[in-house]
Design a protein that fits this description.
The protein is built from 8 helices and 10 strands. It has about 270 residues and is an alpha/beta fold. It has a single domain, classed as 3-Layer(aba) Sandwich (Rossmann fold), CATH 3.40.50. The radius of gyration is 19 Å and the shape is globular. It starts with about 35 loop residues before the first strand and ends with a helix.
Length: about 270
Amino acid sequence: MQTGNETGQSGSELVRPEGIIPYSSRLSVAPANDTIIQARGLEKFYQMARLQVRALDGVDLDVGRNEFVAIMGPSGSGKSTLMNLLGCLDTPTGGTYSLNGIEVSGLYDDELAAVRNREIGFVFQTFNLLARATSLHNVELPLVYSGVGARKRHQKAMAALDKVGLGDRADHRPNELSGGERQRVAVARALVNDPAIVLADEPTGNLDSKTSYEIMQLFVDLHANGQTIILVTHEDDIAAYSHRVVRVLDGKIVSDKRQVPLTATAAV
């Protein structure tokens, strides 16, 4: 799932050759420990004509289990590239990346897809809900890809909707929901597979201030119940809810500081 021709690579995708045993067959043996993300020397280079663009240039990052981390940076800083690598949406040019004990930096595309579905719950600014599907069916989608049976899918999806306060809206389609409710459905979908991390990319970007506070309170509550959260944002008032802020500039981490988080109720 590369996005361009990279230095040292001949193709745009890492496709597993015939006869190679899928690494995904060994994903279940990852040991439990307190470090859920460990990145060392992460690099991502793009070749544009004769110019090599260093989108990420030797990033080291550790994230512990049950941390709430905000990643910040201006446009072009490399924060989106870092998010794509942490979310297994792309592969690095160099360096190593371990997610929940699984070394993922050298996996093929189909193996990355298996890791994404099992270990990561995504929340996007634009919700990314299927317009013709109900809230319940939208939340069930990751379970469909995991091969979970219909009855168990229904039970787990309803439990996830209940967790975000939308159990009574399970049969509503996106156009019948408010923006905040649609984002709650997206959060429920992110949680339904019990992921190791929730990766939220500008989750309040399309919401008004009051609804943004409500969504951030939901993330605060999820973190209080043990969920590891990585929040990508350019807004200081949204990053204020996290316990740690990592700032990226020119493809490098330039600041990594812990902070006392703001509560959503205090912000209202």
